[in-house]
Write a structure and sequence with these properties.
alpha/beta, 9-stranded mixed sheet, two-stranded antiparallel sheet, 11 strands
């Protein structure tokens, strides 16, 4: 990792900065709830696996994704197909600022998340929240109950979740294009990924919208360790906006560990998703944070959990 940096207020979106934001999450002006059952298949291998991916108990409740990943042959085939797709998508990821806004003109920021029913790793709620910036007022929220048929496999989260997030964005684009976010913050990594193509990269490329990846835990790649990064973060991330660049043994900068709030000593891990620089990603994350997790993703998470409580299966 590189030395800690405290950003200063920029005049463009490519400089890293932090401010203390005051905001409240207001009731949404556009709210919709839908129910969707879909199979997340992005390759022939995952399609084959999906045919037998769901099992339930005798009365049809408490469904779980079948651990077909325990089948070594099928798992190997899926991994190979998925890695090929990750590499193809990675070649399309843009790692510089490719948008028409600056931090001074940015007005709409999206946040996406998928929340699960306790004890159920198959039925979930996919959510998209759009917030005005810099007020951080929620102006749109939409939820859909979805059925995930792919099991969670480290490094392949996008093949489990991205389809349902793309659907949320497509619905907004079709029904309220005036509220389409200029950048989307994702509960999942971007370049900070084994193949440099995490969920945030997938979503950005597939929707052609700038995206920022956010991780609650450090993905240890390229020689980085939780112990080393954690020790340096505790010593150098002293106040809101301080960040460390996550530089691996190869010299590649994978992302940044950001102290997002004074009341949150544990960092959030920020990485490029698509069409933003790392400097801009850190800037936007810092300016949208009241707590450890930036508000667009935090609100998508909290509101989708509330949706699940209000709409039990």
């Amino acid at each position: 990792t590189t030395p800690a940096t405290t950003p200063t207020t920029p005049t463009s979106a490519s400089a890293a900065a932090t401010t203390n934001s005051t905001a409240s999450a207001a009731a949404a002006s556009a709210t919709a709830a839908t129910t969707t059952t879909s199979t997340a298949t992005t390759s022939a291998a995952s399609a084959a696996a999906a045919e037998t991916a769901v099992e339930g108990d005798a009365d049809g409740e408490n469904h779980h994704c079948r651990t077909w990943a325990e089948n070594p042959d099928l798992l190997a085939k899926c991994r190979a197909e998925w890695v090929k797709e990750q590499h193809a998508l990675r070649d399309r990821v843009v790692c510089v600022d490719q948008h028409d806004w600056t931090i001074d003109t940015l007005r709409l920021i999206g946040g996406v998340d998928i929340s699960f029913i306790k004890g159920n790793d198959c039925d979930a709620c996919a959510s998209l929240v759009v917030m005005e910036f810099p007020s951080l007022k929620v102006v749109y929220e939409e939820y859909a109950m979805v059925k995930l048929t792919q099991p969670y496999i480290s490094g392949f989260l996008a093949f489990r979740e991205v389809e349902f997030l793309v659907q949320r964005v497509d619905k907004l684009r079709a029904t309220r294009p005036d509220l389409l976010p200029q950048v989307i913050m994702v509960d999942g990594n971007g370049l900070l990924h084994y193949e440099k193509c995490g969920l945030a990269c997938h979503l950005g490329v597939l929707t052609d919208i700038p995206t920022i990846g956010l991780g609650k835990n450090l993905l240890c790649v390229d020689g980085m360790t939780n112990e080393a990064v954690g020790e340096e973060a505790s010593q150098k991330l002293l106040r809101k906006g301080d960040f460390l660049l996550l530089q691996g043994d190869s010299g590649f900068i994978w992302g940044a560990a950001l102290r997002a709030a004074d009341n949150a000593p544990n960092p959030v891990y920020v990485s490029i998703g698509h069409r933003v620089s790392l400097e801009t990603a850190v800037l936007v994350a810092a300016k949208t944070s009241l707590y450890r997790i930036p508000e667009p993703v935090r609100q998508a998470d909290q509101r989708s959990r509330q949706f699940l409580r209000d709409h039990p299966l």
